[in-house]
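Narrative of activities, Objective 1.

The group set out to show that a structural description can be obtained from nothing but a protein's sequence at a throughput compatible with the screening campaign. Below is one input-output pair from the validation batch, recorded exactly as produced.
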Amino acid sequence: MENITSKNNDKIKLAIQLKDSASARKKASSFFVEGARLCYDAAVSNVDILQFFFTPKAKEKFYDFYCEISSKANSIFEISEEISKKMSDTQSPQGMFCVCKTVDKIAEADKINSRGKYILLENIQDPSNLGAISRTAEALGVDGMIVSGGCDIYNPKALRASMGAFFRLNVINCDDLQKFISQAKALKMTVAASTPSTDAVVITDVDFSGGVISIVGNEGNGVSRETMENASIKITIPMGGRAESLNAGTAAAIIIWEMMRHGS
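Output recorded for this entry:
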């Protein structure tokens, strides 16, 4: 164990870069985790913890978490409360941080379960939405969450909103969405694109049996035109109020619920 006393320490600087920058995370193939529970979730989910930083106060308060995390971490560093505040992305830091190795999975449809149920997120921009959807997806038992464009899944806000779901859920990155959809359809999977349009099939009337990939689009623009045209079916959630659309996280929760409730 090493004691770090300077805010200008290279390891501290790198951790902060990973917190603040998606490009830094991509370049280093690493990401930043903050908070006692989230660091613990990473440890028990067998995420590769490269570095573990903690304050003496955090070690005392979260001793059980400290023991589990430190037993899995490659390197351990004690830091001051001042450094903890500098590293933190929250107003009230708990004094525990990890730098972990990313596990990026690139999607090919023939590598997923063709009888499974998946939620696909196209260009979701809000990290809180991304994290919340992953939490719902895990809770309702989907086979995986596919992410195409938009927010980085290792964004600290997304990780916090996920409540550790990212560490346990099968999350797949998709670089070529149209190719992936075409592959999925060739495997006889239903690709359902959500839309507020009234000419789509009402979600309660959709046949979710067999392999299904349900798509939720960007917060402002929804599912892209190309993706909509390439999908097997357009689905919609009927609304009785004056709102024109639902929040992406809310829409995803309803779609996942219906997909898992009726699918077999």
